[in-house]
Amino acid sequence: MSLVCLGLDLWRGLRASPEWAGRSIGFVPTMGALHAGHASLLKRARAENDRVVLSLFVNPTQFDDPADLARYPRTFEADLELARPFTDAVIAPNEEQLYPGGYHCRVTENDLSRRREGAHRPGHFDGVLTIVLKLLNLVQPTRAYFGEKDWQQLQLVRRMADAFFLPCEIVGCPTVREADGLALSSRNRRLTPEGRQRAAEFPRAMRHAKTPADAIVTLKALGFDLDYVEDEAGRRIGAVRLEGVRLIDNVAI
Ligand code: PAF
After folding, report:
1. I need a labelling partner for 62 at 20 to 30 A (CA). Which of 36, 119, 125, 129 fits?
2. Distance (Å, rounded) from C-alpha 160 to C-alpha 167?
């Protein structure tokens, strides 16, 4: 890793330098608390581009619950260690730099973003799309990498990139799972050991149920609180809560 750019001026200078201008750039936007799922995005970016940029920014505008934002794990030093082998530059701007003058200009998608996650987390996707557009404009990557675990987010980022003719390829990457099938997520670390074991029933039930309604019955019987399970375009997409921790996942059907 050549550089950790906390400020954006340093980043802009680097982006315009002869070592970077004219090179292909792979970008992995994250909120930190990196795990092997993020490492897989960075590895893919490394394989497909001359340069790799990682962003670390816990984006306040995508949290509908201030307590959730306050609880979000912040593990800056460990994140740098995990990213080091695959990354050329890290940008970690602060809120003032990314929202100069506040949150008055935002991106709103008014169709898919209103369903599923959007219905349960009002304003969430406005926050996600707004920060992704800001970061894409700052980094100007050739390709940007997103995990398929956040399926709806990936579809919405693709829609935004198409709608605004963004000169960047949006690359979706397969979900990385623990040995028992649980999708890796920064939120998993908030589960108790017993909750962590039970959480693996979530993708199992989604995969094995014949219909979303069957999956819901099974998951409720297993003690999960259900937000939704729905099928769409060959995918079963769901969100549940366990021990107050919200888990989302999707599987091919
Ligand atoms: O998937 C995430 O971690 C976030 O939603 C993203 C894309 C980094 C925007 O803050």
Report:
1. 36
2. 11
